[in-house]
Amino acid sequence: MSDYRVRLGKYGEKLAAQYLERQGCRVIDSNYYTQWGEIDLIAENGNELLFCEVKTRTSDSCGYPEMAVDYHKVKKVLKAIQIYLNRKNIEKFWRFDIVSVEIDKENKKARLKWFKGIGEI
């Protein structure tokens, strides 16, 4: 992955974390790595544990950011979530969400959308 894409992804994750905190969540972990992949953001919202996949784009030429979270990505993230829950010995309600970040470089603005409950238990 190019350095630009890595920086763009990290910037999007930072914006997403700030957005979630403004919505009343508390980000407790980020970039949690397992053999199945990475969980971008882990947050608490009341008694719910949120596992968030963050997708960032600067154009819609490849579709909206959230469209990049396909069936295979969801399966991998769900496996990573199970590993996290087992390692941390957590037995509480959790949810898998997507935070979509669209960056308008020309106007120096970002639009974020929060898709709740992609997968939940």
Describe the structure.
The protein has about 120 residues and is of the alpha+beta class. It has one domain: Trna Endonuclease, Chain: A, domain 1, CATH 3.40.1350. The chain has two helices and five strands, in the order αβββαββ. It has helices at about 5-20, 70-90; strands at about 25-35, 35-45, 50-55, 95-105, 110-120. Strands 1-2-3-4-5 form a five-stranded mixed β-sheet, sandwiched between helices. A hairpin with a 2-residue loop joins β1 (about 25-35) and β2 (about 35-45). The longest helix is centred in the first third of the chain and has 20 residues, at about 5-20. The protein is globular and about 45 Å long. The mean pLDDT is about 90.
Brief overview, please?
With 121 residues, this protein is of the alpha+beta class. The protein has helices at residues 3-22, 71-88, and strands at 26-34, 37-45, 48-57, 94-104, 109-120. Strand 2 and strand 3 (48-57) form a beta hairpin.
Any idea what the shape is? globular
- The average pLDDT score comes to 92
Individual helix count: 2
Q: Give me the secondary-structure category.
A: alpha+beta
Could you name the key traits of this structure?
121 residues; alpha+beta; Trna Endonuclease, Chain: A, domain 1; five-stranded mixed sheet; 31% helix
Which helices and strands occur, and which strands form pairs?
Elements: H1 3-22, E1 26-34, E2 37-45, E3 48-57, H2 71-88, E4 94-104, E5 109-120
Parallel strand pairs: 3-4
Antiparallel strand pairs: 1-2, 2-3, 4-5
